[in-house]
Each structure stands twice: as C-alpha cells, then as structure tokens.
Amino acid sequence: MRVRCSQLVKVFPGVRALDGVDLDLRPGTVHALLGENGAGKSTLIKVLTGVHRADGGTVTLGEDGETRTVAFSRPLDAQAAGIGVVHQERNLVPSFSVAENIALQALPRRAGVVDRAAVRDLARRCLAQLDLDLDVDQPVAELSVAHMQLVEIAKALATDSQVLLLDEPTASLTADEADRLYAVVRRLREQGHVVVLVTHKLEEVFAIADVVTVLRDGRSVAGSVPLATLTRGDVVDLMVGRAHTELELSERSVDRAGTPALELRGVSTSVGHRGIDLAVHRGEIVGLYGLVGAGRSELVRALLGLDSVTGGEVLVDGDAVTIRSVGDALRRHRIGYVTENRKEEGVFLTQNLARNVAVTVWDRLARFGLVRDRDEKDLLATYRDRLGIRLSGPDQLAGQLSGGNQQKISLAKWLAADCSVLVVDEPTVGIDVRTKAAFHELIVELADQGLAILLITSDLPEMVTLADRVAVMHERRITGELLNSHHYTSMSAQVIRLVHGESAVDDPPAA
Amino acid sequence: MSTVLDEDMGAGAGQGAGASRRTALSLHRTELVLALVAVAGFGVLAATTGGNILQPGTMQAVLQFLAVPIVVGLAQMVVLSVGQMNLSVGALTGLCAMAAASLMADSGLTPWLALPAALLVGALAGLVNGTLVVLTRINGFIVTLATMSVISGLRFSINGTGTYQDYSPGLVRLGRADVLGLPVVFLVAVATAVLVWFFFARCVAGRMLLASGGNPFAARLSGISNDRSVVLAHLLSGLLAAVAGVLVVALSGSVNASVGDDLLLPSFAAPIIGGVVLTGGVVSVLGTCLAAFIVRLVDVAQAQYGINPRWVDLVVGAVVLGAVLVSQRRGKGSS
C-alpha cells in the first residue's frame, strides 16, 4: 500500500508544528524520517497514526489506479487502514503472554471465551513472518527490551499493517540487538511493507534506509529522496539548514580569567554520566546541547542532589562542595534551577502568583514563622516590573497565565532567592515567537548582571543566539565544547557533527 | 479521548508497568507462601488447641464463616483489577441481604425469586458506581465513598433497626447444611471463586479488564474501551457483593441493617495480602482465597485462646500494611 501525504499542516497554539509536509511512502522501502529536535517528526507520526488530526493537507492511500483520501480521527482508524506504529516498549501488557499481546487487538474467541489455541497460532504466524523464535507463552514482562520491541512489531503485523512506523527503535538496544532488528526490517521490506524509521542515528539510516525525508521547522526540506543520491554531509546540511530571523544580540565579552562560579571536574553520576568537565563563569551563558535523551537534564538533577554525584568534583566559586538537595543548592550555594516542565515542576498552578514567587524565600520573609501577604506581594511587584510579567493581580492563579508568563514566574522564584548560578532548562518550549525573543533578551540581561547561566536547550537557533560557549553532550558524555561565533550556519554544522559523533573541525563548513 | 484509566499514564506508565511486571513474576511465589502460612497456621492452631478445631463441628464453623470473606474479597479484587477501589462493598452486601430478607419476610416471595432479585440489586448498584466513575471522571475512591453512605442509608430504610427472622426456614436449613462435611455456603463461595478465576483467565471480557488495568495505553491502542472495563468491573463487584449478601441471609437466619459494617477491611485484606496489585492488571483468585482463610484463622485463634476481639482488627490491619510494604519493597529491590 502506498501512502502519500501532501502539504500537511498541524497547528498548536503559538506553533505551526507541521507547515506543509510532503511524504511518499512506497511499498517495499525503508523510509528514514530525519530532523533535529522539534522539527516536527513526532507530530507527523501522530497525524499518521490518528493521535492528532491534521489541520490541512491530505493523506491518500493506495496505488495510482485506486486511491482514497483519509483523515484519521483516532488510533484505531489508522490501524484499520493498515498503518501500525511501534512505540518504545509502551504498547504491551506486561503480565500477559507474548501470544496474547500479539493478538490483543482482536482476541480470537469462541462464545466469549478466549480461543487460546488460535491465539497461539496467530502469534506463531506473526513471529514466523519475522523469522523469530520466541516462546509464545512467556509473559512479556520476562523479555528483554529488544524482544519486547520485536513483539510489538509482530503485534502490528497481526492487524495486517502494511505501513510500520518505528519510533527510535534502537534507542535502548545493544549493537547486536539492533542488527537483529535491522534483519527484521529488511525482511519486512522484502515482503512489500513500508517501514518508516524515525531516528537520530545517521549510521543507522545509511545502513538500512532506501529513501529519506528530512523535516526542518515543520517543513519537508527533502521529500522522499533516494538515499543513494545523498552523502552523509548532504543529510547533515539538510537537517541544519539556515536559521530564520533570529534576534541579533550585541556582542558580549566574558571574563573567563577568574574562578568559575560553577565548575565540574571529571564528574560521574548515578545515572550514567562519566568524566564530565564543565565550567560556567560569572556573566557567562554556557549552552549544553544534545539530542533529547542525551542526559543533560539528568546531569543537572544529579548536580542538585535529586540523583547523586558518584565521582569527580563539584566546585562552587572554587570550593569543592557536596550538594545533597535542591534546598541545599539554593540556600548554601545559591544555585537555582528553572525546570523544563514548568507545569509539573516549575509553578504551583493552583496557587496565586505572589505565593509562587515567594516560595523559595519564605524562611527569609517569615517573622515568627508567619509570612505576611504584603511581603509576598511586594516581592511579586518587584519581579513583575523587572521581568515584564503580564498579570492581572497578585491573587491571580499561576494556572491562568500563558506559558511564557508562567515561565517568567518560575524564573522570578529563583531570582527572588538571589541565585548566583541559574540553570535554565528548555526555557522556551511551547512559547510563541514574540515571548521567546523577550525571554532571550531577559536571559542575556541576567548574564550581563553577573549571573552564571547554564542553558539547556534542544532548540539550536536559540542556543546559537544565546550561548557564549556551547558544550555538546551525547550519551551522557561531553563530546566537545565550542566557542560560539553566533554564526548560525557554521555553528549549527559543528554542533550537529559533534552530536553525531564526528569531529567538529575536520570539515570546515562552507559558510 | 482520554479515559479514567489514562490519567495516570504519562510518566507513571513505565513505572507502573515495571511494578506490575515484577509482581506478576512474584505472584506464584506469593501464592505458595500463603499456602504454606495457611497450612502452618492451621497446624499450630490444631496442635495448641489439642485438636479442638479438627472436630467436625468446629471445622464446619471455620469454613462456614469463611464463605463471606472469600466472596467480598473477590468483589474487591474485581475492581482492583482495573486499578480502582470499591468502598461500598460492605454496605452493598448489607443492602442486598436486607433486600432479600425483606422480599421474603415482608413481600412473601419465595427464595427462588427473592435471591435473584437481591443479586440484581447488587449488580445495579455496581452499574451505578461504574457509570458515575466514567461519566463524572471523579476518582472511584471518592465515588464509592459517597455511594457507600447512600447505600448505607438505603439499608436502614428497609426495616429501620429491626431484625428479620424466620424469613425462610428452608433456605436457612440449606445454608447450614453440608455436603461430605463441607458447608454448602462454603461450596458456593468456592464455586464463585472458580467462576471468577475462569472469567479472568479465559474470558475475553476478563482479559480486557486485566489489559485495561495493566497498561491502559496499550489497551486503548488495541481497541479496548477502558471506560467499558471500569463499568464492567464495578458491575461485577456489585454482583459479587450481592452474592455475599445472599450467603449471609442463608447462613445467619436473622439479618438487620448492621450487616456489612465489618466487611470493608476484610474485603481489602484478602486481595491485598493475596498479592493483587493495587494499580491493576494482576489478580490472584487463589491468593485472595488463601488470604481470606488466613484472616479467618486469626479470628479462630481469637476465639480459641480467648483473646480480646479488638486485637483481631489490629492484627489484620497490620498484616495488610505489611503486605503492601513487602510488595513495594520487592518492587524497588529488583529495579
């Protein structure tokens, strides 16, 4: 079955996640879907599998002779049309057997009783199609992650899926397991299925894909191009592209001669980081870039005592310290953390704004254990003016603010605590373009005032705009560090090369 | 498209799946341990009372009064299977017992009509519980806390604080009869347990409940309606509570509105000690029955040794807490 998408558009409040995507999936091919973080890959998959409805464009199924246009409104519609998706080990019932999981979408039955023989037969057929030998009676819970993934593929085959979307299938597999998966993928291709591979790993793409589509900023910049016509360098260039209208900031100078405000020396953590060296000076913005899952937020969480630092040294203003908790980090070392999930971790949605800002300094405001409303409101007023927060009054609930203003409240909370080091994690996710620019100016302003800022972002243009230096993390290691030239084309190419494990300097980009 | 069960998906899904995975593996071990504890406890009791509880009369009493705890435990287990709770189990057992007695004593119906009517009352109440949970999206704990009060009130509205007696000598004779030394009510409870086991192990509907409880996201993507699972679980829970009510009517010979007041803790104790996962997806009929038996042994020990009855609830409560703690530790330990 051939699937063609034409000019797909999907709009979320403030963002055009898909802005004219073309995709042509032909039977018997392995189609790689590439793009940096936030390019629109996940949204495209969700539209194809009926989780989201497209706001524009068409999806047509079938060969030239007989085609039909479809609009999936729920996952089952996509499944019925023969489009199956394999999530990362999320789609199985752990206590059920392999066979039952494979057959779950339509359990063979006789008078309401599960026909166990038929369930096993179906499962064996699907597994045989993949050339897999698994015990169909084994509970899925006992399988390795790799096997679970293969069971999910078998499950998709059980509903006769012609198109299989594999979302980062090798993210948690070893090299051997990945090879096994590739063998399965090749087999599916021979049988005439389309396999869509969403991945960040270029080596994987060149190993098994035939056709590639590259997304950038919600557009397909390379729509279904045969991979044979492209080199690795071409693909990287396609993914990076050119940044559109970025905020131009005046040149900043940073004094790196003094003692860093925060320094990590050979730090390893309980969540897998090894030998991390990183330093942030006063007045400096250090960017930490990496793919989603590279371990950036995890490093900060370990640093702040939410997980543990197991080796190396953490120095604050030149003194080696041990940070046991966020409270410790805040009160003793004046390190603040503006979290990525502002809704879950950054603000108290059901509390008023004054309380949200004052929470970090209650013990400073309190007299005899009591905090006066007026003190909280004064504090809020200060930061409303300083950060330009748009609010109707101090009693407004944080949940009633827009995303950008919520983020400012989250930031105000840490500024109120008088931090000297601020970790800002994905500050502008889901924030509209104008607020984003204002936020960028704010971050630079804070650095100018002498704060040391560690910026984590997956938004490459944002990184190039803001950071003075960029450290790149890949699989929980720092793979390189670059002085930011603020020149998007050359910076982005260097960063992406570091992310994909290539040296940043061997191939000077044509700028 | 979100459903009641989807709410705790997000970040919790992976964690929950992991926990139920480990528990699934340790379930057989739990059942084995429970069987050993049951045998050991029974042996100790038999030895220290000089064989007292082995005498036919005593043994029959032990099993007779095991019937209701088994069935209310199953009633709770059914809702736990989808990750919900039903606080109205005890009150509903009482309401169904009163309804059955009233239909026989006040309306003069034969047990052949009165008992099915009581079962219908239970199933309807369960249907209301489930429908409320799904329609209002209010947590099942809160919904059944509210309906528990309502049902409790209805229970008293039937006959005030009065007691029904002599509603059906034939039924009570049957309720106290035994077959080959095994009380009829106990056999009914065992038969019920077998049916519940068959439902969860073999029936499509039962497997769907477990799929919804085990991984709501996977269930939804497999075309299973999690809402339907919730409603069905509550309906069956109500029906089983009614079965327990009917057993009370047959067994005791006299019922009043206080029936069911002391059943809420046992209803949770049996499945929780029995290894059923609170977050849903894993059930154990055998574990629930064995746990009910062990709790029953605590009761018997109290009677045999003349211990203050207050201690029984304390011991059962402590064991429930311990069982949850152990399963949590086990979950953490192997991760």
3D structure, described in words:
With 511 residues, chain A is an alpha/beta fold. Helix content of chain A is 34%, strand content 24%. Chain A is built from 18 helices and 22 strands. In chain A, the strands form five sheets. A six-stranded mixed beta sheet of chain A has the order 6-9-10-3-11-12, sandwiched between helices. Chain A has a six-stranded mixed beta sheet with strand order 18-19-20-15-21-22, sandwiched between helices. In chain A, α6 links the parallel β9 and β10. The two termini of chain B are 32 Å apart. The longest helix of chain B has 39 residues, at 10-48. Chain B has a two-stranded antiparallel ribbon. Chain B is built from 14 helices and four strands. Chain B has helices spanning 10-48, 56-64, 67-80, 89-105, 111-136, 140-159, 169-175, 184-202, 204-214, 216-221, 226-252, 264-273, 285-305, 310-333; strands spanning 163-165, 178-179, 182-183, 254-256. The chains are: A alpha/beta (511), B mainly alpha (335). The A-B interface holds A 74-76, 79, 89-96, 100-101, 104-107, 109, 112-114, 116, 139, 141-142 and B 1, 13-14, 17-18, 20-22, 24-25, 202-205, 207, 210-211, 214-215, 217-224, 281-282.
